[in-house]
Design brief:
The chain has 14 helices and no strands. It has 2 domains: 2-93, no CATH class; 100-279, no CATH class. It is mainly α and 280 residues long.
Length: 280
């Protein structure tokens, strides 16, 4: 009997050492009241479980104690294993989406460095290469080595006045920088998936989302004739045809089809501000 209690004391002593070390790691290094509460609850539950197992073992025998204590523990462990496997499967299915998101992020970073930092900035700093710039970038819209002239622009039936490249080179490059930055923002926030093409409900709910300011900025820039001229003549170099359709539905069509668009947007914005203040 004496040896039994000696072993019992040793067992309890080892458990105390274990909990002291665990307490130091969890509570001293990263103290928080919520963590302390959870930790104390776990320790008390664990101690009660050990005590109950001990009492059952002595009173009812080892097999009874094992069934009463080990079965629920093993069952819970099995549940955790099941959900762990399910989580791995879920993560695997979402791997493609995560990879696409990473590609979009990388594309935004690369285009910001190359397109904005080099292709558009260099002609602004070295105007003598503007003829080469026009020869290269006009190929997406013309075979003449020049951007569109007045007649060619008019044939597009776009309700924006014509702005030539010649004589407006710096403003043209600045506009091209904005367009690339707009593309990057849309990619980074996955806006072309959050707001579906030809979805009028999505179009109407923009002002109620956290992206309302971004959409307003896109539309303000695109409403400028020089920016619109650059977009229409270089849109073939951005993303893909679906992206061009997305810009048309969410950015250009709303301002083309409504001369009072910005006035109405200000009114909607102000109304929502008043409503938000009253709600608070």
């Amino acid at each position: 009997m004496k040896q039994y209690y000696t072993d019992e004391v040793k067992y309890i002593f080892v458990l105390i050492i274990f909990f002291v070390i665990l307490s130091y790691l969890l509570l001293v290094n990263e103290f928080s009241y919520s963590l302390t509460f959870l930790y104390i609850g776990a320790i008390v539950s664990f101690a009660l479980l050990i005590f109950l197992n001990h009492k059952l073992h002595r009173k009812r025998g080892r097999m009874f104690a094992s069934d009463f204590i080990l079965f629920p523990v093993e069952f819970i462990a099995s549940v955790f294993v099941f959900f762990g496997i399910a989580k791995i499967g879920y993560d695997t299915m979402n791997l493609t989406a995560l990879q696409e998101k990473q590609i979009d992020t990388t594309l935004s970073q690369v285009t910001d460095k190359i397109v904005i930092g080099t292709w558009e900035s260099d002609p602004m700093n070295y105007p003598e290469i503007n003829p080469l710039y026009e020869e290269i970038f006009s190929k997406s819209v013309s075979n003449s080595g020049k951007f569109l002239d007045q007649d060619q622009w008019n044939s597009l039936n776009i309700p924006v006045k014509y702005i030539p490249f010649q004589g407006n080179e710096k403003a043209w490059h600045y506009s091209a920088k904005f367009i690339q930055q707009m593309v990057n923002v849309i990619r980074l926030f996955d806006l072309d998936n959050k707001f579906e093409i030809n979805n009028k409900a999505d179009l109407e709910r923009i002002s109620s989302t956290r992206f309302a300011g971004w959409f307003m900025c896109f539309r303000m820039f695109i409403s400028s004739p020089i920016v619109r001229n650059v977009w229409e003549q270089t849109k073939y170099t951005y993303a893909n045809p679906e992206f061009t359709a997305w810009i048309k539905f969410y950015i250009t069509d709303p301002i083309d089809n409504n001369p009072d668009f910005f006035k109405q947007q200000r009114q909607i914005w102000d109304q929502k501000v008043i409503k938000a203040m009253v709600a608070k």
